[in-house]
Specification:
By secondary structure, this protein is mostly helical. Helices cover 61% and strands 1% of the residues. It has helices at 22-41, 48-83, 105-160, 165-176, 186-193, 209-217, 220-226, 230-236, 238-244, and strands spanning 249-250, 253-254. It has a two-stranded antiparallel sheet with strand order 1-2. The longest helix is centred in the middle third of the chain and has 56 residues, at 105-160. The relative contact order is 0.07.
Amino acid sequence: MAKSSTATSAPQSPTVLIRYEPEKELALLGDDALEIVGKVEKIKFDSPKTLEAGTATMDECREVLERLDEIRARLNDRLQAAIEPLKEFPIFDGVEPIITFKAWPLRKRLETAMENGRQARAAYLDAEAQKERQKQQELEAEQRKKNEAAAKVAVQAAKGQGADPATLKEIKREVLSTQAPLFESKALSTARSTGVGLQYDYYAEVTDLRKLLQLCLNNEIMLNTMQVAVPEIEKAFRKMASDQKERFVYEGIRFKKVPRDVRRGKS
C-alpha cells in the first residue's frame, strides 16, 4: 500500500503593518518645538564654548522649523485635494487656497528666538573681531619697534664691514619688512569651523535734521535722494492735516482731501 504524503506549505513571511498616525507626529513635533524654543531663548554667546553649543542648538531649531514647513505643505496638499471637486462650480473659479499659518504662535516664537539668537551671535562675533583687530595692531606696533632696533644694529654691523650706501639701504629695508605674527581670535576660528560667518548691514541714521535739510537744499544729489522719503514725510503730517483741514497750509506742503464713501446704518 502506497504511503500518502502530505505537502508541506512554505513558511509565510510575517506581515508588517505600517500605520501613519499624524496626530502622534504632530504631538511629537509640538513637544520638540517647545523644548528647542526654550533652549534657544536661553542661549548666551560669551565664549568659544557657548558659541559652539549655541550654534548647534540653533541648527536644531532650524530643523524643527523645516519640519513645521513640511506639515504646512502636507496640509496644503490636503486642502488642494479637498477643494478640487468644487472647482467645477463658477464660484470657485481661479481659487487656489493656501495655508500660510501667519498667526501660528509657536512658529512665531521659534522665529523670534532664532532672530534674537542670530543678533546675539553677530554682536558677540563683532566684539571678538574688534578685539582681534586691536590685538593685531598692538602686535604690529610692537614689531615695528623691534624692526627699527634690529635695523640699527644690522646697519651698524654692515657699516663696520665697509658696506656701501645702497647695501645699507637694502639691509635696512629687509629688516624693517619683517611681518608681525598674526593674531587669531579663538571665537572667530570656532565660528568658521562651525560654518558661521560675520557680515555687516549698513543703514543711514539722521543725527541732526536741520543740518540734513540744509545739506539737501544745497546738494542736488541729496535733494533727489530725499524725494524717496516724501511719502513717509506726508504720513508724518497726516494727523496734523486731518486736525487743521483747510487751515493746514504751509510752504511746500498742504492738506489733501480725498472722497471716501460711508454707508450709514438704517435708523
